[in-house]
Amino acid sequence: MELFVASDDEPEHDGPYLPSSQVPHSQPPSASQEARFVAATTTTRHLADVFGSITPVSKEAVITIGSDGMRIYAESEHRSSNLSVTIDSTVFRQWQITPPNATLKLQLDISLIASALSSVPNDPEGKHTCIFSYDGLGSPFVIEFEDNLISERIEMHTYVHDIDDGPHVLGIDRSRVHFEITLDSKTFTALLESLHNVGTTEVSLNISNTPETDIRHQLTGGNHNSLFFVSKGPIGLMKVIYPGMPTVLERVDIYDDSDNPTPITSQVSSSYSFKQLGQILKAVRLSSKCKLVKDYRGVLSLQLLCRNQSNATLMTYNLVELSNVEIVYDEEPMAVEPQSDQEYEIERGPAFDTPIFL
């Protein structure tokens, strides 16, 4: 983390980060200091939901602003999970960054933005205008709200970013994909809420695309796609069955671990901490499509498409299996804290079978 020593006439700060507004003026100017950014939108409720879905992962986040939109990156403690959100510039009715090819990067408390946007009343007629602005290193991130009666301005401290959002962060190895599943987000939300309501601590994800055993379906030559979750918590084990209709469980693809991955017929089981998996519940509620992708290293990626009228916001949440204690990124190892003392195994014995009804 980059630190600077404040002079006696500069205000003290309580947090672990030094506000970029306190960076000594003797520091040579950079291209990012000369850049400026301003954007305006009336879709305040959508942005409030998006920023609010980031805070369960971490309150601190890095925002990268470019000519085509902004990317928000947050990671949990021990870097065992992270969330990346891409907001397209078309979500805003005005988007301006000068010079046009500039890139701005800042770190701040993302919960402050979520709280500010959530305070605006629901405005389906678009009478409230929200303006984002940032004048580069040393400046606060500013949100202004305007309507016919009142104007409000909120300034937020920004920091010299110390969160690594580069190429070595936790993510899927596309050359070693184990499986891909496409789900209906509404049904997946109901499933996660069911797991949350029974106090789930660990959850096992089980998928299969084995051949059909029903003679009526064998005539079509298709496979039987199935997905169910086994919850472990205070009440013991509970099996939650995900509906198998093609409109709900749209796609189940399993691949072999080879230089040229080939689709295969198989069964896969993997276990995760529900404390981490449950962090994405708010984001899943916003999404219209959800894809689950897992690689052979044990990284699971949830990719969410969140639509707002004609615009879309993309979210990608990555986490690791309980059995993994080390993940390797391009020959650079990174330790990941195990989430439990023992690897979770599905116990053979009585369990509740709970189907999700539509």
UniProtKB/TrEMBL annotation:
Q: Where in the cell is it found?
A: Nucleus
Show the segment(s) annotated as Disordered.
1-32
Q: Which GO terms describe its biological process?
A: DNA damage checkpoint signaling; DNA repair
In this chain, composition skew of type Low complexity spans 19-32
Where it mainly occurs, coarsely classed, is nucleus
Query: Which domain of life does the protein's organism represent?
Result: Eukaryota
Q: Keywords, A to Z? A: DNA damage, DNA repair, Nucleus
Task: Kindly state one GO CC term assigned in the UniProt record.
Answer: checkpoint clamp complex
What InterPro entries has UniProt attached to this entry? DNA_clamp_sf, Rad1_Rec1_Rad17
Q: Which family does it belong to?
A: Belongs to the rad1 family.
Spell out the protein name for this chain. DNA damage checkpoint control protein RAD17
